[in-house]
Amino acid sequence: MLLISKCMNSIKQPNFIIFGKNSIDEFNFPTNCLVITSKGAKSRGWLDRFKLKNYDVFDKVEPNPSIEIIDEIISDFRDSNFSHIIGLGGGSSLDVAKFVALKLKKFTILIPTTFGSGSEVTRISVLKVNGKKQSFHDDGLFADVAIIDSQFLENSSQDIIKNSAIDALAQCSEAYDSKISNNFTKFLCKKAFDVLENGIMNEKYEDLAIGSLYSGLGFGNSSTTLGHALSYVFSNEGISHGHALAFTTTVAHKFNNSIFYDRFYKIVKKLNFKEIFLKQDLAEAAELVLSDRKHLDNNPRQISKNDIVFLLKKINDGNS
Fold this sequence. Notes:
The protein is α/β, with parallel strands linked by helices.
């Protein structure tokens, strides 16, 4: 076993990362696969492009999935003889696929169709436990193969594009500021922000695929911070992850004096996100946010319960 001392830095990623437009058309997919995806991804006919043989499909993944779906999939396909799991879709489908693969010890191929979560190249899976979002971290959650193909951006709705892009922008900019960042992750995160910003501000949407890849590799080897911790309480009330981050990462960047605050704020304004409002009692929400040590312990500034209540109130008052 390789031992990493506290004064050393390390970078981890999937064994193989394949990227480029139409790369899925050139990949030789294995037989005997279980494809984990959503009904929307299946209905778009994307599976036909893979030329799969002898495969099963689970297409019931919804946004912000709960951990119970893992047991459902394992139960449904207990008697199936598949050797590989293919995760196809947005971050929710990929997070479910990699968690099932971890449990069943199966070879994993992850293919994002939206470009924001970076899940295809991280050791992180986000699932709801008892109705609350929770992130799981394990090296066993890495894909064996990640395929990043920008053709999935074609005909994507503006809502999907802007929610995905702001997710990636929040991840890389928060991770740049993280206490556990290093020179290499900072390089990746800054490069990701530059590419994603150019893609959004100049409507070069094909850049979002490679920008999201850089972001995933950057934050996956560092950590997102306060913006993500704040976002989960909004997601628990049904607000989409990217939509929530547009506001929570904005206030977090201002609190942290981030070098990305002004640029992030301008992008949020360009994308014209509708204001969000938290229904939960703010003091109770702050307690929940405060318990998220995976994010807050790596935040560049210490934060108190009163600070969190203040930031949540700013969002609710439309002052983010």
